[in-house]
Amino acid sequence: MSRPSHPGDALAWWVRTRGGPACIGIDPVLDRLPAECRGGDPVAAIEAWCLRLLEAVEPFAAAVKFQSACFERWGSPGVAALERCLHAARGRFLTILDWKRGDIGISSQHYAAGAAGPLLCDWVTASPYLGSDAFEPFVKAGIGVFMLVRTSNASGDAVQQQRLADGRTVAEMTGDLVGAAGAASKGAGGWSSIGAVVGATKAADAARLRERMPHTPFLVPGFGAQGGGLDDVLACFDARGQGALVTASRSVIYAHETAQGGWADAVAEAARDLRDQLAEAAASRVPA
């Protein structure tokens, strides 16, 4: 079967192809790169490291998620490097641009045009605070969009756990919005092109949100270095063990800090371990 074009179908295809729902977060911090990768122009060093990283994780990762802030901090050269890295990953992974945009009208349309055109990414992240304006242009452009629903950072509780008059939390209200909107953009496999960011550190909330959003792909950050474990991510999968991409960043991309040998080998081994653990966890959701 060829790679499908619908964002939800493509996500499921990549998970099957790579044997597990591993997403590698690419968050380059210059001071943490291997010593051999530093020196000279910082943007050139980061780009070269990213390209080698893609080679190391390619056999094991269904998706890669580029943190735009790590590139934007270097100005226009950094943004250009991000674009080249996204192009290098295109067709080798499901590509996610983590830029958490969320705007209205023509501004949102511009963001969607950039994602579909020059940046050529498969999915993006966005904030739902401005309602359907924040995601509709992406769907129309054929780009999947993960909306922030229940994030892994502790301070997000101050907003996301607030109760509304009807008893729902803000996160549950947002999940209902995302789930309802996504019902009209499901692919052949039943998964929507509107997804949800649900943190691995919020397991109890994830279970409730999965019930509310049965056709919504989850992007699950917070696994590994941020404290989320295998038991925490189980609720993000549906009863078939599908519907989630679990992201690990620091525990994979900086694996050389606690390993012996070459840095790329350490990264590849960490990506393999991540893929295998997540595949086993997803399979455990399927009734015997």
Describe this structure in words.
- This protein has 288 residues and is an alpha/beta fold.
- It is 41% helix and 15% strand.
- The chain has a single domain (7-283), classed as Aldolase class I (TIM Barrel, Alpha-Beta Barrel), CATH 3.20.20.
- The protein has twelve helices and eight strands.
- Strands 1-2-3-4-5-6-7-8 form an eight-stranded parallel beta barrel, surrounded by seven helices.
- Helix 2 (42-57) packs parallel to helix 4 (76-89) and helix 2 crosses helix 12 (263-283).
- The two termini are 27 Å apart.
- The model has no long low-confidence stretch (mean pLDDT 94).
- Structural classification: alpha/beta
Strand tally, please? 8
User: Which strands sit side by side, in order, in the main sheet?
Assistant: 1-2-3-4-5-6-7-8
What best-fitting shape do the alpha-carbon axes yield? globular
What would you give as the CATH superfamily? Answer: Aldolase class I
**How many alpha or pi helices?**
12
What is the percent of helical residues? 40-55%
Count up the domains.
1
Q: Briefly note the CATH topology name.
A: TIM Barrel
Estimate the strand proportion.
5-15%
Q: Whole-Å distance between the termini?
A: 27 Å
CATH architecture tag: Alpha-Beta Barrel
N-to-C series of helices and strands: HEHEHHEHEHEHHEHEHEHH
Overall pLDDT score: 94
Largest sheet: 8 strands, parallel, barrel
> What would CATH call the class?
Alpha Beta
CA gyration radius, whole angstroms: 18 Å
> Low-confidence stretches at least 5 residues in length (pLDDT < 50)?
none
